[in-house]
Write a structure and sequence with these properties.
This protein has about 180 residues and is an all-alpha fold. It is built from 6 helices and no strands. Helix 2 runs antiparallel to helix 3. The chain is elongated. The termini are far apart.
Length: about 180
């Protein structure tokens, strides 16, 4: 029985003020490309909940007794740490989409991908999944960072459907290899 070819669904091009780096960045890349300001925003978001609870307790005491306030603070802390992580992750993800300034990430991406080309490695990692399942994973998590506050959904799958033309990485690698070759001879 012949296996039929599944249709490729290209990523939708969205007009943004900055260049698209990746429409479906892997979880690890998003964390690796994060800026110190992302960490600061995430930390501030995580600290806001417990700080607000302490302020409310000072302004309008709850009088819950000795053991009543600690469980509420623990719950608030856990929820706030989750919110802080989502804030950190979303700020970094939006730069991949080109929604916010991303010059630093463009340079990091070019350097990372050109190094992979020079080493003859797959650009976006190797996957044990079939191409069809990689496409399903891509379609499910493409631009998911926009709705991260509604449904946290992360790309944990290596695939080659990222909405960018990868030829630029190969061309840059060729230029660098040619410059190294002519520079050494």
């Amino acid at each position: 029985m012949a296996e039929s070819q599944k249709a490729y669904v290209p990523a939708k091009k969205i007009k943004t003020d900055f260049p698209l780096i990746d429409s479906d960045p892997h979880f690890n890349r998003v964390c690796k490309y994060a800026r110190p300001s992302d960490y600061a925003a995430g930390t501030a978001t995580a600290a806001f909940g417990p700080a607000l609870m302490l302020l409310w307790e000072k302004v309008a005491p709850s009088y819950v007794g000795r053991g009543g306030f600690a469980p509420i603070m623990r719950l608030t802390g856990v929820i706030s740490v989750g919110a802080g992580f989502l804030m950190f992750f979303q700020r970094s993800t939006l730069r991949f989409y080109g929604f916010t300034e991303n010059k630093r990430e463009i340079d990091m991406d070019m350097k990372e991908m050109v190094n992979k080309v020079k080493k003859s490695e797959p650009l976006y990692g190797e996957s044990s999944m079939s191409p069809y399942l990689q496409g399903v994973a891509s379609r499910n998590s493409r631009y998911a960072g926009v709705w991260l506050h509604v449904l946290p959904w992360f790309n944990l799958v290596n695939h080659n459907q990222h909405g960018v033309d990868t030829a630029k990485y190969y061309q840059q690698a060729e230029r660098e290899l040619e410059a190294e070759r002519t520079g050494k001879s």
